[in-house]
Write a structure and sequence with these properties.
Elements: E1 37-41, H1 51-56, E2 65-66, E3 69-70, H2 71-81, E4 87-90, H3 94-98, E5 104-107, H4 114-125, E6 129-133, H5 141-150, E7 157-163, H6 164-170, E8 179-181, E9 184-194, H7 202-211, H8 216-221, H9 225-232, H10 238-249, E10 253-257, H11 270-279
Parallel strand pairs: 1-4, 1-6, 4-5, 7-10
Antiparallel strand pairs: 2-3, 6-9, 7-9, 8-9
Keywords: Magnesium, Nucleotidyltransferase, Transferase
Pfam family, one: NTP_transf_3
Protein name: GTP--adenosylcobinamide-phosphate guanylyltransferase
Length: 284
């Protein structure tokens, strides 16, 4: 991340320190009035070489550059611009830690996986806690603002999903994993909200979901026999499924639908990196 301050009216404003937020327009005006903390997941499994990072010739996917900025820098800039008043990055990678700007906390990633890293991040940062990932290359503050504004006030846990039609309209070439419901197919957007400590029981269920994220039917099986049959017959809506999963976890859970289909695009593999470079008009 380069040194120096840029003018607030610059078209691509970069935010390097938390106190730089005073120079930005307040994205929390209007319906969005929730101060929040933000946790960026940037962990990696020991001994595992990330395919997207290797493809880009870097040691960690957070160090991949897009439009002259690392993915880490882009994600931090988005959450800062959205109004986060405390930010932590969950990682055990020394290069990522050394790249963190002043005011952003390094939180050691759990060896037990992302869900446990979320628990440790929540204990460090507090609530309400927005959670995203370092490979959310196209993340925009407007998406975060919409997510927090549309999150039901009585939900302990919220997650953003994008309708398939919006994903395909925004990125026709992307290949996503979709969950099918009566009201359509949806893809996850790597944006979660833990409103308070009451959300923490969801982490055990999260662990089960992350283990089966590439096999949607196994996630659906967690709903129980009756609702599983309804899911398989295409009779279950997204909201019904999320509410049921919340009950299983002992929390109130809700889904927020993304307005921009690009919110479902991350950099999970080399083809994804090619796609986001194409979207921003950058040559590989």
């Amino acid at each position: 991340m380069g040194a120096g301050r840029e003018h607030a009216h610059a078209p691509h404003r970069r935010v390097h320190r938390l106190d730089d937020l005073q120079d930005l327009p307040d994205l929390r005006e209007g319906p969005l009035t929730l101060p929040f903390k933000a946790l960026v997941l940037a962990g990696s499994r020991p001994g595992e070489i990330d395919s997207a990072a290797a493809y880009a010739g870097v040691s960690h996917k957070g160090l991949i550059t897009l439009e002259g900025r690392t993915l880490l820098d882009r994600v931090l800039g988005a959450v800062q611009a959205a109004g986060a008043d405390g930010i932590g990055v969950s990682t055990s990678d020394a290069a990522i830690v050394s790249a963190l700007p002043q005011g952003v906390a390094a939180i050691a990633a759990s060896t037990e996986g992302p869900s446990q890293s979320v628990r440790e991040g929540a204990e460090t940062l507090g609530f309400p806690l927005l959670i995203t990932t370092v490979d959310h290359a196209l993340l925009k503050p407007e998406w975060i603002a919409q997510f927090l504004a549309d999150a039901p006030a009585d939900a302990d846990v919220c997650l953003m999903l994008a309708p398939e039609a919006r994903v395909r309209a925004a990125a026709p070439d992307t290949k996503r994993t979709y969950l099918a419901f009566r009201d359509g197919r949806f893809s996850g957007c790597n944006l979660f909200l833990f409103r308070s400590q009451a959300a923490l029981p969801a982490i055990a269920l999260w662990r089960r979901v992350e283990q089966n994220r590439k096999q949607p039917w196994k996630i659906a099986a967690m709903l129980g026999p009756g609702l599983l049959v309804r899911y398989l017959l295409g009779l279950l809506t997204l909201d019904e499924a999320i509410a049921r999963l919340g009950l299983l976890a002992g929390v109130r859970a809700a889904a927020v639908r993304a307005q921009d289909g690009l919110a479902a695009v991350d950099v999970d593999k080399p083809a994804d990196l090619d796609l986001v470079r194409k979207i921003v008009g950058e040559s590989a």
